[in-house]
Specification:
By secondary structure, the protein is an all-alpha fold. It has 2 domains: 81 residues, Rna Polymerase Sigma Factor, Chain: A (Orthogonal Bundle), CATH 1.10.1740; 82 residues, Winged helix-like DNA-binding domain superfamily/Winged helix DNA-binding domain (Arc Repressor Mutant, subunit A). The chain contains 9 helices and no strands. The longest helix is centred in the middle third of the chain and has 33 residues. The N and C termini lie far apart (50 Å).
Amino acid sequence: MEFDSVMIEEQALKVRSLVYAKVPPDDFLDVMQDIRIAFLVTLPKYRGDNGAKLETYAHTVARRQIADYWRKSYHQKKAIKAMGEELSPEKTKIENYQNALPEPKAENGKDHSMSPAEKGVFRLLGQGMNNAEIADTLFRDINTVRSHLKKIYKKLNCRNRAKVALLSNRIFEEET
């Protein structure tokens, strides 16, 4: 059986009401796009040998994508809550960029403050962008972004991307 974009759209329309009922409106389009991608990958594997209808198969794929959405959402909320509990009340009310960073240490003559390029990457990280999106936004190579991120992690003495992103978000939230 040959699957094309028209057939994928037909199946997406059939599961649309299911997704609308299970997913918040803000995330509806993102989840539908994920479902279309899953259809693109999984529908060619559908043979119908066991008598299952294509519609039933499509609903199963959609339910799995919805479950993945909620699983990711739960883990994100749990991580944000854990990070919020780790931060003391003084740190939750960060006034500006300088107060959020650790004190610069001049060991071996090295400066531990962020360069303007690192600040740009740090700001975009707080907006939830991945490395490729940051590279596209700043018109930089992705390896340059990775290098800046390594330096930022080292300067903040933190290896957890989510914590660094949360810190950036709190620092730059007044600007947006």
